[in-house]
Write a structure and sequence with these properties.
660 residues, mainly beta, Neuraminidase, 2 domains, eight-stranded mixed sheet, four-stranded mixed sheet, disordered N terminus
Length: 660
């Protein structure tokens, strides 16, 4: 064989080896583990632009992921907004002159949101969770400069959430919303903590982050006030002497009682930097007003809509919303964007030439859909997280309490309502228990009984155990555990003889025992029963709360939630018989906070759960979820650093870990 032929042969062999090695590496990197979870984010949001009074809104983004919270550059060329098109919330800049694809400004895996641009156009201030919780950051505004994000500086760097920053007209100050920090040993569900979480105030600081101070008097803007007020989302007056905020005054009954009675009506207020009580500019007993934005001439735009209905519900229950505007004194009101043009137009921003931008529902027709017409996978939620020992696919869906079926599909409760683009547990109607493929195909009903609600399914072999009754009902309400075959046959009530609240079943690996939470002895504890409902055995016996059990794949341990240290709900690991228990994270015992719904990995080495340890990444007044700002975390069973799986402003939770 000649030298040239030998060289050619070696080259071919090397190429084949390289290709084979590359394919092998790609196969090794391909996730076999899948965590599927419930996400309550909207279906789709797009950015809309209105060129001036009486102009029709134009949809400026067409991605199926969420686009929201737009702001203009001072020269009107750029529209900066938040997008989740790469799997997490980043800042993008849309060139309104050249109409190119949006330029990505941030690439951090954490959440970046709520941008504002300095008057000279050189800096951008925004909210980021890149250092663990929501802080205010500043970085150069230089679309196309990929190094700008690395130069971001944390201006607040404090415990407690910091939201919605805004530059003053001269660029010397930044106003933002501040949430009071929670003491680490304070009970997570205490009235004091609830007040701290909800009662936000507005602060100002110099643009380099120094000299932070509350503004205003006679309200929660400052200490020692005689009239309390919850406020946020500051927008500067053109002369820089005051800010406009949304908020409401707290009546004599107190904040928590006021919220429970649904007697809050947010309005738009003006607060002077020189002192004095805030002055209400916009307010009504029948409507809410949110997110003020001020134009160069002083006109104030805001989102408004009908007030929330009475009864238990999220703080603000948006069904529809328009953008209105008023003069600086609150007069000459007019409609800028009505609900026939955009069903719900949120976070309006006024531009330098009279333009208006906002975000609202976008089309969903191109999303993968289930047989009933609803999207199942959530754009922006399907991504891979690399653990120290494996890659794991993370997939958010619209179903509640998903679990894997032996044929590769999933089963879940359907009850999410799409009356608006903001998803929530359905306030009416009793949806069925259904199964489907991960891509949303092959949907069918597994269990549906008139006037009953099935939820929290748990699978084992060809059986599904589930809860039937009101989710999260009081302990005195009759809630039962049923089981049904995966083909929908053989449904039977396993706790028919119990009048207590029995819920949240989990199977033993051999499918012969079911563990569950029950109030049958007066408080929430864990029990076990045979797969036919017999031989009920109490597993835990405490005066507090023990709930949401899961059984390890080897059948030797339970993961559960306990409040035994008093400060919050934490994950507890114990032997199946109740012995040798310990906290999953001993270093977090006694810390305030909530960790919920633990599930073992298929090999039993990790536990995935939902936690509020990342804090609130947005103002409570802008929250629309029943359990705001839960993110998914995973922690090794035998100890070690946790892995954050989601980092966004929506509620993520109710996860299940499987293999495919």
């Amino acid at each position: 064989m000649g030298h040239r032929a030998l060289s050619l042969l070696l080259s071919i062999v090397l190429l084949l080896c390289t290709t084979s090695c590359t394919e092998s590496q790609q196969a090794a990197d391909r996730p076999q583990d899948v965590i599927v979870y419930t996400t309550l984010r909207p279906e789709n949001h797009d950015i809309y632009l209105v060129d001036g009074p009486d102009a029709e809104p134009r949809r400026m983004t067409d991605h199926l992921a969420l686009d929201y919270n737009a702001t203009f550059s001072p020269d009107g060329r750029w529209l900066v907004f938040t997008s989740e098109r790469k799997g997490n919330a980043d800042l993008y800049a849309l060139d309104l002159e050249e109409r190119r694809e949006p330029v990505r400004l941030t690439r951090n895996p954490a959440m970046d949101d709520a941008a504002d641009i300095s008057p000279d156009g050189t800096r951008i201030v925004f909210v980021s969770t890149r250092e663990g919780q929501a802080d205010v950051f500043v970085m150069p505004f230089a679309p196309g400069d990929v190094t700008a994000d690395a130069r971001a500086e944390n201006l607040t760097n404090r415990a407690g959430g910091d939201f919605n920053p805004a530059f003053s007209p001269d660029g010397a100050l930044i106003a933002w919303t501040q949430q009071e920090a929670r003491p680490p040993d304070e009970p997570a569900l205490s009235p004091q903590n609830a007040r701290r979480a909800l009662a936000t105030r507005v602060f100002v600081m110099t643009s380099d982050g120094t000299d932070p101070r509350p503004i205003g008097t006679g309200s929660l803007f400052a200490e020692g006030a005689t009239t309390q007020m919850v406020a946020g989302s500051p927008a500067w007056s053109p002369d820089g002497t005051s800010v406009y905020v949304h908020g409401f005054a707290v009546g004599p009954q107190g904040l928590l009682a006021q919220l429970q009675r649904r007697s809050t009506r947010t309005g738009i207020w003006q607060v002077s930097l020189s002192g004095g009580p805030p002055e209400r500019i916009v307010g009504s007993e029948s409507a809410f007003a949110l997110s003020p934005s001020v134009g160069p001439a002083g006109r104030i735009a805001y989102t408004t809509g009908p007030a929330p209905p009475p009864g238990p519900a999220p703080l603000l229950w948006h069904r529809s919303g328009e953008v209105h505007s008023v003069d600086p004194d609150g007069g000459e009101a007019r409609v800028e964007v009505d609900s026939t043009a955009v069903a719900l137009c949120l976070a309006p921003a006024l531009g330098p030439e009279g333009q208006l931008a906002c975000h609202g529902p976008g089309p969903t027709s191109d999303m993968p859909r289930m047989a009933n017409g609803r999207p199942l996978p959530r754009p922006g939620t399907d991504h891979v997280v690399r653990f120290k020992d494996r890659p794991v696919r993370i997939l958010g869906i619209r179903g509640i309490f998903p679990d894997f079926l032996p044929d590769g599909g999933i089963v879940y409760g359907e009850g999410l309502n799409e009356a608006t683009d903001l998803a929530r547990f359905a306030p009416d109607g009793l949806p069925p228990l259904v199964s489907a493929e991960l891509d949303g195909s092959k949907r069918r009903e597994v269990f549906h009984r008139e006037n009953k609600r099935p939820w929290a399914p748990a699978t084992c072999g060809h059986w599904i155990a589930f809860t039937e009754g009101t989710p999260f009902a009081p302990g005195t309400e009759d809630v039962d555990i049923w089981k049904v075959r995966t083909d929908g046959t053989g449904a039977v009530n396993l706790t028919a003889e119990s009048d207590a609240n029995d819920a949240l079943p989990a199977w033993s690996p051999d499918c012969e025992r079911i563990f569950f939470r029950s109030f049958r002895d007066g408080n929430a504890n864990l029990y076990a029963m045979d797969d036919d409902g017999g031989h009920v055995l109490r597993i835990t016996d405490r005066p507090g709360i023990e709930t949401t059990p899961d059984v390890s794949p080897d059948g030797e341990r339970l993961a559960l939630v306990t409040d035994r240290d008093g400060a919050g709900w934490k994950i507890w690991i114990q032997q199946i018989d109740g012995s040798q228990g310990r906290f999953l994270e001993p270093n977090r015992r006694g810390l305030a906070g909530i960790d919920m719904h633990p599930r073992f990995s298929p090999d039993g080495t990790w536990v995935v759960f939902v936690s509020d340890r990342g804090g609130w990444p947005d103002e409570p007044l802008l929250s629309d979820d029943p359990q705001p700002y839960g993110d998914l975390w995973a922690v090794p069973v035998e100890g070690g650093d946790g892995v954050r799986l989601t980092d966004d402003k929506w509620e993520d939770g109710l996860a299940q870990w499987g293999t495919r």
